[in-house]
Amino acid sequence: MKKLLFLLLIFPVTGLAQTGKDIFNPEVPMVFFGIDFTKVQFTRADDFTNKPEILRFFVDANNLIDHGSLRNQVSRQLERKSVEWDLSYVTAGNSVVDWRNVYSDNIDYVVPEDELNNMVKNLKVDQKKYNDFIGMVLIEENCCKAKPLQTITCLFFRVNDLTVLFAERYKMKPGGIGFMNYWGVNHNMILARIGRLKKAVG
Length: 202
Fold this sequence. Notes:
Order of helices and strands: HEEHHEHEHEEEHH
Number of helices: 7
Number of domains: 1
Radius of gyration: 18 Å
Strand content: 15-25%
Structural class: alpha/beta
């Protein structure tokens, strides 16, 4: 009985002890939550003519990355047999974004660090379902047509207490024919090469 009690007590502590290095630890389960557009800004405002349709892009961009080939790539890159994918939380959050508020003239806009922490909490992840998991999410920050430049943060967090473990900000040239491909291709590139973060994680 004493041994059983000890095991029950130590399991939560083990989960809370996860660090950035566990991002590439195959023994720690990982779940990818998709692309969060809740704080994105499209800059400059006058450069975009499809404003009312922008919410459709949020859906299409997540659909574009939701396929078996990319899932397998991400699993291999993160040195795991498999990585869970659950886009339901970003889908819910993205669906209530007011398209009238996602345009500005601040071409240097990025999401502040404290707001990134709040975004993790605002995902409202089921912490019981994903107990002891590390969560990964792409935070869309700035789609700047003026430069042109796309800013995206790849963020890893501990699901048990929603603590950010590691975040990497990417500034990438967009490219492709059509709005979807122009702004959607970089998400695939980040995910397909996610293993390159191993050195930065330490």
